[in-house]
Amino acid sequence: MRIAIVGCGYVFDFYMAMFPSHPELQVAGVHDIDAARTAAVRQHYGVCVYPDLAALLADGSVGLVVNLTSIESHFAVTKAALEAGKHVYCEKPLVTDLAQARELFALAEAKGLVLAAAPSNVFSDTVQTMWKAVLDGAIGAPLLAYAEFDDNPIYLMQPEMWRSASGAPWPYTHEYESGCTLEHAGYHLVWLCAILGPAVSVTGFSKMLVADKTDVPLHPADTPDFTVGVWVGNFDGSAMRDVSGLSGAAPVWLELMNYLNQKWPSVKPTSSARSSCGSTRC
Exposed, middle or buried by CB within 10 Å (0-12, 13-18, 19+), for 7? Predict the structure, then answer.
């Protein structure tokens, strides 16, 4: 499948490092609203650069768009790609508004397209091994699961100096402004929901504990950097459904309860993909 990437910031280089391991994916081209970034990317990787988003979406050879833009652009870029008939994989969080998420999934379904979002760690060897252990009954009936995401005291690690392979700075102020809830909890929530089923209720608490992480003004200035939550389900064995865009907290403590005397069905982890290829190059 030929894919196109929108957004060439810090995380872009991690995706580019992955593609050599997946020869079935061909990068048709990239686009970023920052001309300096696209120039740096073209020089570093030798990739084709689209002049604008419209040109990227008009490329009939592209089957899937990878949306690596900033969070506030996720909705508009993803919607435009779906309307152009492209499958979409979006970085986390998919959106920050539930109504927008529902709109995007409804649009994808109406057009027969695949819409997915990071994190995709549910397909990793580690999570798949845990999932199989639960399905096989190797640990008995799960009663409680504990998950923690502690991303270190980043503000003490000079994130202002971090650069990607092609020279993009890590957007530390954006990270602080988005906060731990939207940025990190999806990593654990995705596989917890996949393995144990959807939530019946969620209770959470969050607070900003470190106010002076940077001298740069933040907007908003009080985004939580700590969140704790309790996730309760009846664990009816439902397979993973639409959990790709879940977002939550980091560090996060998620206690999964109310699984007593429930029969776990023999549902096997599966993944599916649709492909669309072409030969036209930008």
Answer: buried
**pLDDT band with cut points at 50, 70 and 90 for residue 77:** very high
Amino acid at the residue 193: C
Architecture of domain 2-117: 3-Layer(aba) Sandwich (3.40)
Domain boundaries, the chain: 2-117, 121-257
Q: Would you say residue 13 has pLDDT above 80?
A: yes
Mean pLDDT of the chain: 82
- Is residue 65 within 8 Å of residue 85, measured between CB atoms? no
How many Cα atoms occupy the beta-carbon half-sphere of 2 within 13 Å?
17
Residue-wise DSSP of the chain: -EEEEE--STTHHHHHHHGGG-TT-EEEEEE-S-HHHHHHHHHHH---B-SSHHHHHH-TT--EEEE-S-GGGHHHHHHHHHHTT-EEEEPSPS-S-HHHHHHHHHHHHHHT--EEES--GGGSHHHHHHHHHHHTTTT-S------------GGGS-GGG-B-TTSPBP-HHHHHHHHHHHHHTHHHHHHHHHHH---SEEEEEEE---S-S-SS--SSS---SEEEEEEE-----PPP-S-TT----SS--EEEE--SSPPPP-PPP-------------
pLDDT of residue 152: 83
Model pLDDT, residue 211: 93
Kindly state the average pLDDT of the residues 128-157.
87
CA distances in angstroms from 56 to 7, 81, 106, listed in the order given: 12, 9, 23
